[in-house]
Amino acid sequence: MENSSKQWRFEGNKRLNSASAISVRGVLDLVIGNLSTDDPRPTIPLGNGDPSQFACFRTSTTAEEAIVDAVHSAKYNGYAPTVGVLSARRAIANYLNRDLPYKLSADDIYVTSGCLQAIEVALAAINRPGANILLPRPGFTFYESRAAYEHLQVRHFDLLPDRGWEVDVDAIEDLADDNTVAIVIINPGNPCGSVYSYDHLKMVAETARKLGILVIADEVYGHLTFGSTPFVPMGIFGSIVPVLSLGSISKRWVVPGWRLGWLVTSDPNGILQKSGIVESITGFLNISTDPATFIQGAIPQILENTKDDFFLKVIVTLKEAADKCFDGIREVPCLTCPKKPEGSMFVMVKLNVSLLEDISDDLDFCMKLAKEESVIIVPAEQLKELRLKVMDFDDHGSMLV
Fold first, then answer.
1. In the chain, which segments carry CATH 3.40.640.10?
2. What is the SS3 assignment for 177?
3. What span, in angstroms and rounded, lies between the C-alpha atoms of 255 and 274?
4. Which residues carry this modification: N6-(pyridoxal phosphate)lysine (predicted)?
5. How far from chain centre, in Å, is Cα 394?
């Protein structure tokens, strides 16, 4: 019989619990847990950007054949280099160069396990004691989860719904101080479905330059636009301000489970190299994991040979879905959509709880929607409340789902 008075020296890492509490996955688990096991209807999962389970969003045959060819070649069964397979890095550079006024090389590319790991690398590389980072509100909460784990302070700038969810540029300078190191721009927008113009992104770049901070450009939904505004990569402004561009094949090729992403130093002036950020990126990757080598081996064929008609089909389907969603929302009195989505796979909607019976807040709405209709959506206000409980700085916002 074990001595019950024994004092064990170990305990769980509470930082992980706090970081997880403000993640989309953590809140989605709450909502999904409320699904009725007796409901014969299929679940409609609208809570994350993964439409791969729907037949209309199957990836290209080019991508599938590239994976098969990479496996059959037997060239990609071993460990990959820390920064990624050279042929993959070259292919990613060539793919991104189509939209840039200068040329990236393989040395500017770091292959990651999806865009999530690229976020982890970026936040770890820029962190230092007392540092803070500017994040959009609303935004992708994984940044806050990682910042909480890294002890990187967060300050929020608002996205303006009446201006198509543009950045409140005037407020950024008031938020920043001598400890501010970076600003995150998500374009196309998650969760707002916004797409920023060239002029607006240039204004953000010039503001960041004035403040002496770098830009982390989350472009995982790059080129997934279906409105009047085309996608403009932030890297275009790399000569104005250093940019860490993050992306992946997850969304455009509809293969989030393949976990192949990248972090790119869009910095023709070499400022990131001189400041030690590049060395920190490599340092993080040296103590982290890599995406599967055979998927890296398939990347050149995927990026170079996928036909435009595949991308067009995805865009047309997304636009049809966005139009139906927006029109449907307008018919529901308790829901308001400030801006019709023009990109990504999300839309931000305001919920008027006062028009509903027996609904206390957005989480309650989402949980009951899951139980009664088998529909999964994300309660943004609940994510904000959880964030307030685990972070020691101010926050505010409207009730949105």
1. 81-305
2. coil
3. 36
4. 251
5. 23
Tokens representing 218 are 């989350």
Tell me the residue length of the chain. Answer: 401
Reduce the secondary structure of 198-263 to three states and give it as a string.
HHHHHHHHHHHHHHCCEEEEECCCCCCECCCCCCCCHHHHCCCCCEEEEEECCCCCCCHHHCCEEE
Report whether CATH 3.40.50.920 matches the domain 14-57+309-400.
no
Give per-residue pLDDT as tens, 46-101.
888 889 988 899 999 999 999 999 999 999 999 999 999 999 999 999 999 999 99
The pLDDT of residue 24 is 76
pTM value is 0.92
The pair phi, psi for residue 300, each rounded to 5°, is -55, -45
Output the average pLDDT for the chain. Answer: 91
Q: Cis omega before residue 138 (within 30°)?
A: yes
Residue 389 pLDDT greater than 50, yes or no: no
Per-residue pLDDT band for 30 (boundaries 50, 70, 90) equals confident
E strand or H helix at 157, and its extent? strand 153-160
Q: Where in the chain is the domain with CATH 3.90.1150.10?
A: 14-57+309-400
What CATH number should be reported for the domain whose range is 81-305?
3.40.640.10
